[in-house]
């Protein structure tokens, strides 16, 4: 309770008036006095307000709605604190009965609404002065009463025995603790000698200490025990103005528990020392008291925690200076062993040497803990042994009891996690390696959980579909936008895998963000296991859209090549037939005119013989008819020979190769690459082991790109068809000869090889070892002819069962 003088502003006023004009005028009057005035227009709301808050002055109208003013006055007087307020009845009534009723209801005064303004203000001022007087008396009484109550409460609540005696030991007053111990009322103890309650020896000892306090005019302290209960006594003499002592206050504290705790602390300290010394965990105690103020200053000057950390990174000289100012007070044997110290003394003196550059982050964390006045921090730290090999440690930093303010004793415990960190790093590297393989593999890799929810979607999948991994993760595969919802893309597929355990390859289509449909060939495997079931399903896929397109194009191209072979075969056949026909036709053409001329001469001779006609007729031949028909027949023979010659010439022109486009400058590497691209599907189907090595520079020749391409395609197809196992290889190499005059193309296979007899007939038209498989025997013959047209050579070397080498040489341009 404050002792300052009250003022009108301290008065809280409640006005209960149903007339708005009167309420407003009353409120204005009190506001001019700096009083807080609250208005209420009915009796019930005013009554509820007083229940919640005490008002020193109440002005009540008699005619209030709900609860009239007189009833309100009676009810307020019945409430706690209701008699401490001043109630003024404000009424328009002037009869004696109403005013008497107001006083009987508990009103302190009344005021008529017809009173003049001057008188009205004077009466209000008198009421306020009365209220102020009441408030001051009330506050003074409360203050005294509270002081007495507090003093008595403090003494009675004290766990100590408090007793006031005179200089002879007569009890003048005692607190509840003494009455409790003595099992007696306070009044029963008054006037008794306190020493009468103790044994003679205890009484004599305590009386001596009392006399010492009285004679010495000073406080006396001592300890003793009664029946294993330990007490600490403080005897305070109350010195009078004449420097004498009539009253003494004795405080007696039961310190039995304190004694027990002290004993327990000693035992605990011994156990702590034992554990400290013999535990296998490195422990040491460190004193940071010399750097506490510096750290707090730096922390308070930092804008935030990051700025605090950055300060030490940019002022490492200060960091190391602070480290040097801390000191180790004790260290156990485990610290010596783990850090390779000679002994504990060396470790204590040189602890700072185990801290190095990579220890700074954790040390800053410890500095921050001190600056923030915290007691505990833990984490990971890199330290070094005294031989400078690194250690990864898990540390706990704890301020010991009693050192919470100055950090003079901090216990640091360490666990060596170097092996664990190495294992973690190995697993991290392994995980990164696997992730790199997944993300950088040219194949598509999608991983789902056992129920079809996508958990991995590698970069190749993202590039193909246009969907990022975060767009598909944790979605069911069949609910994704790129799934084509085919039989292989439904929920039932995963149910079938779970129920049957069967993993099969399949093809399905994916729809990209750009609405492009891609055909994917999938193979499936499982990964991980829990409770006998795989954890994940791994889908490994390849976009075979272009492959299928290429296969169709290759098939079309193969059909074209077959048609070309047929045309070449036809050309070779025509050329051969033409040659064979041309010889007899030439004889006919040469001898026909001679026969015609000779026949004419023969008839002129026959005409000179007599009876020649009869001789012919005797043989059944009409000479006249013969003379007429024979020239015609001979002319038909001559004309037919001419026709045969013309037809042969046309056939030879058809079979003759066109040499008009043989002047192109062609890079052999480009021709080989194009040829390989055309037959790459056949190569991949035939072998898993193929290689193409191209000379790093251009190998330019003069000739025709398409005709050279026809040769290489034919040779590559033959090499593929010679393989009996996909592990057998095909290799293609291009390079110049030593003189740089020729481009050499070497195509080698590990197929079944070619017999010596077959090698001799290899370039003959219609010779083939694959006739049962539709071979025509024209491919190599045509190839040989094209090579010759380019001024080159083609040679085969082969051993049955060992493979074949085809070497083509074309002059460089």
Q: Key features?
A:
813 residues, alpha+beta, Rossmann fold, Beta-Lactamase, 6 domains, 5-stranded parallel beta sheet, 5-stranded antiparallel beta sheet, 27 strands, 48% helix, 23% strand, elongated
How would you describe this protein?
- This protein is an alpha+beta fold and 813 residues long.
- It folds into six domains: 8-152, Response regulator (Rossmann fold), CATH 3.40.50.2300; 158-254, PAS domain (Beta-Lactamase, 2-Layer Sandwich), CATH 3.30.450.20; 261-416, PAS domain (Beta-Lactamase); 424-543, Beta-Lactamase (2-Layer Sandwich), CATH 3.30.450.20; 548-655, no CATH class; 664-811, Histidine kinase-like ATPase, C-terminal domain (Heat Shock Protein 90), CATH 3.30.565.10.
- The protein is 48% helix and 23% strand.
- The chain contains 26 helices and 27 strands.
- The strands form six sheets. Strands 2-1-3-4-5 form a five-stranded parallel β-sheet, sandwiched between helices. It has a five-stranded antiparallel β-sheet with strand order 7-6-10-9-8, with helices on both faces. Strands 12-11-15-14-13 form a five-stranded antiparallel β-sheet, with helices on both faces.
- The longest helix is centred in the last third of the chain and has 62 residues, at 545-606.
- The radius of gyration is 62 Å and the shape is elongated.
- The model has no long low-confidence stretch (mean pLDDT 84).
